[in-house]
Design a protein that fits this description.
mainly alpha
Length: about 180
């Protein structure tokens, strides 16, 4: 039981921190900017990045704007799946654990908005890229960490197989080596 609790400490700390930062930044935007209003702290950044109060009823990139309830249910199911599966992940699989924590924080951050507001508050606008928030960023980084982890694990397994194959090819059966002595 103690191992399981310790295992969830990282997940809870990481996802909890993301949820808190996400909700605080969204609250600041809702309190200080009306919908569609833009704030530019530095004029030289204007063509590249700005803060804009926007909301999204769909998913990433503004897709599926009428599916808010479906995405709330999916976010809830994803969160439950991550919480359930997390303790089954080997402790040394840091990439998967990190990815799951990032994705859980992002999913719950946006789920809170969907349940309390009926939409997700977005506010970071970079170039012509769709407006996003801390939770969206966390989910995206989590996906990249997951891909990197899978790639790294695949490389490690290939190396191990190659080493095993080389060591098996260099070892002669015991009968053959005794006959040649």
């Amino acid at each position: 039981m103690k191992k399981k609790t310790h295992s969830y400490l990282f997940l809870g700390s990481l996802s909890g921190t993301i949820i808190i930062i996400d909700q605080i930044t969204k609250w600041i935007i809702r309190q200080n900017l009306s919908i569609g209003e833009t704030w530019m702290p530095w004029s030289w950044m204007e063509p590249y990045a700005r803060i804009v109060h926007w909301y999204n009823r769909g998913i990433a990139f503004g897709l599926f704007q009428n599916g808010g309830e479906i995405f709330a249910v999916l976010a809830f199911l994803v969160a439950i799946a991550i919480i359930y599966y997390y303790h089954h992940v080997p402790v040394d699989d840091w990439a998967l654990r990190l990815a799951m924590g990032l994705q859980l924080g992002g999913a719950v951050g946006n789920l809170i908005d969907r349940v309390t507001l009926g939409h997700v508050t977005d506010f970071v606008s970079v170039g012509s890229f769709p407006v996003f928030n801390v939770a969206d960023s966390s989910i995206t980084v989590g996906v990249f960490v997951l891909i990197f982890g899978v790639w790294q694990q695949d490389r490690r397994e290939r190396k191990e197989k190659a080493l095993q194959k080389n060591s098996e090819g260099n070892n002669q059966p015991a009968e053959f080596s005794q006959a040649n002595e």
